[in-house]
Amino acid sequence: MRSHNCGLLRSADIDETVTLCGWVDRRRDHGGVIFLDLRDRDGIVQVVFDPDTEEHFATADRVRSEYVLKVTGRVRARSEATVNPSMPTGEIEVLGKEIEVLNTAATPPFQLDEHTSVGEEVRLRYRYMDLRRPEMQQRLRLRSEVTDAVRRFLHGEGFLDIETPILTRATPEGARDYLVPSRTHPGQFFALPQSPQLFKQLLMVSGFDRYYQIAKCFRDEDLRADRQPEFTQIDIETSFMDEAGIMEITERMVRGLFKAVLDVDLPDFPHMTWAEAMERFGSDKPDLRIPLELVSVDDLMQQVDFKVFRGPADDPLGRVAALKVPGGASISRKEIDDYTRYVGNYGARGLAWIKVNDLAAGVEGLQSPILKFMPEDVVASMMERLGVANGDIVFFGADRAGIVNEALGALRIKVGSDQGLVGDGWAPLWVVDFPMFEDDGDGGWTPLHHPFTAPACDLATLREHPGEALSRAYDMVLNGTELGGGSVRIHNLETQEAVFDILGIDPEEAREKFGFLLDALKYGAPPHGGLAFGLDRIVMLMSGAASIRDVIAFPKTQTAACVMTEAPGTVGAAQLRELHIRLREQEKKTGDS
Amino acid sequence: MRSHNCGLLRSADIDETVTLCGWVDRRRDHGGVIFLDLRDRDGIVQVVFDPDTEEHFATADRVRSEYVLKVTGRVRARSEATVNPSMPTGEIEVLGKEIEVLNTAATPPFQLDEHTSVGEEVRLRYRYMDLRRPEMQQRLRLRSEVTDAVRRFLHGEGFLDIETPILTRATPEGARDYLVPSRTHPGQFFALPQSPQLFKQLLMVSGFDRYYQIAKCFRDEDLRADRQPEFTQIDIETSFMDEAGIMEITERMVRGLFKAVLDVDLPDFPHMTWAEAMERFGSDKPDLRIPLELVSVDDLMQQVDFKVFRGPADDPLGRVAALKVPGGASISRKEIDDYTRYVGNYGARGLAWIKVNDLAAGVEGLQSPILKFMPEDVVASMMERLGVANGDIVFFGADRAGIVNEALGALRIKVGSDQGLVGDGWAPLWVVDFPMFEDDGDGGWTPLHHPFTAPACDLATLREHPGEALSRAYDMVLNGTELGGGSVRIHNLETQEAVFDILGIDPEEAREKFGFLLDALKYGAPPHGGLAFGLDRIVMLMSGAASIRDVIAFPKTQTAACVMTEAPGTVGAAQLRELHIRLREQEKKTGDS
């Protein structure tokens, strides 16, 4: 139907007769001539109709925004005065000869270039309009390029693309499952997978050696954060490879991806232990672009009487840490109050601070409500340890270590960003040597990753000191975002049973939930491991979008609904009967609940 | 962990020291030497341990089938007598130096080479064992090659890979939906998509121009045929392209796929109208490898008194057709009885036949229970029309046209296959010019494809003669299987409303079900169309598998269950309460249903 795409016309096409199809981005009438900006997915070109071609001029005159046109005309150079260097097609225009209206358009619910003036709800309701915006077009095109680059790499490395089921059994990731009632098995339900974890392990047991899948995953969680009920994972698993091998191949994949799609050479990926990341950044996914670090001062605070600091400093589970912000002395009292509230969200009960006004003046040159509680020599040692300079501010956290890390870790990002300290570019790293378990606060253990993660120690040590055991897990982090995480898996039945035991899953429950995995481990499971990347998050980072909703064609709202199709929706009684279920609401009405 | 893959070792590797990982396919003890067949996804290699290496010999001695090993040794040529030309690695063997047991294996539930002796249920329960069979490995590897070739082609042609939602609204394909209760919207349900049809149309309205997705689709149907609750579509849609363009590009894709994966050059794809396909083959997906055709004899049968034939011949909705099978006179009476029962499955009330024993003898040379009902000249004209020869048999169908076509169409395949008449190779074609609607037997119309298919006629004609209107749909058929089907879609609001009207969907219902589509058609929908291929079926055909279950890693049984993971399963009361539903079973027990 067309000879060229609008957005790709250039000076080289001058004098060509072209046929274009696209949408009217703008129509202007100027000096008796009609200018149409015709838009397709490749961009916009200006088409000019003058009154010479009477019939077509009349048609051009009545078209409106978002009409769909087919236009034939001749490409010509724009006059020097009208060249538009900000448009890729700005050196040329098309002199229209023929015009056909392929479809009309009612007045759009919002003008594409005024999308910010309407709420996100309107943009989601008319998603097909919002997706016409060049920015959205580019993001989804980038997403397509990303999946293509990933697939090309993995296929080239011998990974097989294997699909795993969507209608499956409840999976053990711990979040709430989406359920699907079975018609043929009354009273029973499928679950939508939270990840293909167990299936990919079974594919290794099956001998496929290298598997990948760009897989839909589902979690019925509250969507406070930037989450979606369905999201997409780049899911990878290999046999006969240790963590070094898996990290090497996936790092190469991400490096190649950035090169292919953004022409970016990522810097080296340093390896950092989980313990170091928590100590220095209060986070297991540190943003290394921010040149601020947490510094432990527990030993110093053991010398003060001030209970707020002394208590956590003496407590083996506590932590007192300082965060120095160079140049931060200009932060106002009001801003400090805001930061205090901010760290309160993470459980911190306050935010102590010291401003460094004049280092040469000793304690006199410092400004802080807490100085009066601390001996001068402790303050001096602390200032020395922190290497402060005039104009700095130091924030303090003192509490259980978990709270201090979360609060100061978050503050580090916030202050760093507010103060314009976030460096340019890309700062990737690997976080390694995670603990196997964390205290569930109830005398038991929960897995830090999932219960199929292999321990880095032997079985006896694992059983004796589960709290100290490290796992063979690894996370890839970029600019403070976890791109993906994985581990070497347990391939040995005895180890798997021991881990279930430590987690308080008795053999009967293990059999009931994971019987097929335990069986599979019996019949010759190879050593294996893998990794899963969050595709939505990778594309969001690469495209600079602010939310994963902006890199998903048809996302759900924060209440897990689609305002465009009005999903979820009601369902007839007959259909529910076939599925052997009934609404609870209904029952309430009849008073039998 | 390894230097080479087992199945890839060749004579060129002789004298290399290699480290291999894999499964023990077989262990033999012969003349004081241990032979291990070590298997990985690339094949099998023979490893030999002799008693020189005492410790490793002892280990090799205790390994059993399906143990996972790591073996280091030297590649050497086999002696001339022991070269095995049927194995790709058969010219060499590995003289084992070191052996490590990576994992043991209990006695397998079945020996891999004895899979046919256990039922499919056992193979599905231990699917991870069944998938170790080289045949299954090859099928899933072929599937991965197919998706890769398809993606590479479509990406190269500028199609964007865009994901559409799995949690969505009931879709209009007409089969039963799988439903997902919403936790955040009490009493409401998502549906799993039967296809991304409406989303891909909306992507065209969004201006993406060319879309593809290898998409999971879901239908909660009874699985009598070779169907699965979840299946995979290669889903394609383009804007500004007519049916010729879409058929050209998708034919090129399939041609390239067969070349890339099977090194097969598909022959030309003839175009055949739906009417011709039904007339000549009684099927809209004719297997052109079978050189048998239906021949209409209605005009001749209007001259006989025999009611069974005369009735349908006189009825404008009836049909009398003949199917000549060359050399079929040898078909026994018992076989004819079997065929009679077979066509009975398709609604035929009998199967008349005539055997041609001696053409020169006239009617005397024919053998048939129905000859007595027919005038000799009619028989003679018929024999002439059919071009029979001695030794042929002719079968007859007489009934409503639909039944005759289904019954004789199926018989054609069955007899053709039984008589060894199915030609070699690949016989693709396009079936075009489908009717828009079919009689729903209730005075109304149902769409032959779906209600978004564009008509080939103008609106006035469509409204006046819906039964005669043709659509702009097309199916790609290969060897009697529909590989895919598609159409140019309706992009015009008035046409869409007219089609809904003909289908008896009133404006309110249309608004309620498809409001978002009707809105989208208002705001500048481009001309567009596309096609969806059944990936499972394509891979089944290409791999020569007998069932789509053999080309799906983890398929469901005929009752839509997974016997390995035991899905679907029961769910706790608390979880159901969160989803605002209750089991009906439960209610019966408390007597309040």
Automatic annotation (TrEMBL), chains A, B:
Task: Show the stretches that span the lipid bilayer.
Answer: none
Instruction: State any GO BP term from the record.
Output: aspartyl-tRNA aminoacylation
The Aminoacyl-transfer RNA synthetases class-II family profile domain covers 140-555
Task: Give the family from UniProt.
Answer: Belongs to the class-II aminoacyl-tRNA synthetase family. Type 1 subfamily.
Q: Which keywords, in A-to-Z order, does the entry hold?
A: Aminoacyl-tRNA synthetase, ATP-binding, Cytoplasm, Ligase, Nucleotide-binding, Protein biosynthesis
Organism of provenance:
Congregibacter litoralis KT71
Q: Which GO terms describe its cellular component?
A: cytoplasm
Q: Which stretches of sequence are listed as region Aspartate?
A: 197-200
What's the protein here called?
A: Aspartate--tRNA(Asp/Asn) ligase
Q: Where is this site: Important for tRNA non-discrimination?
A: H30
Q: Which NCBIfam families match?
A: aspS_bact, PRK00476.1
Broadest EC class assigned to this enzyme: ligase
Reaction(s) the record says it catalyses:
tRNA(Asx) + L-aspartate + ATP = L-aspartyl-tRNA(Asx) + AMP + diphosphate
EC id: 6.1.1.23
Q: Where is the signal peptide?
A: none
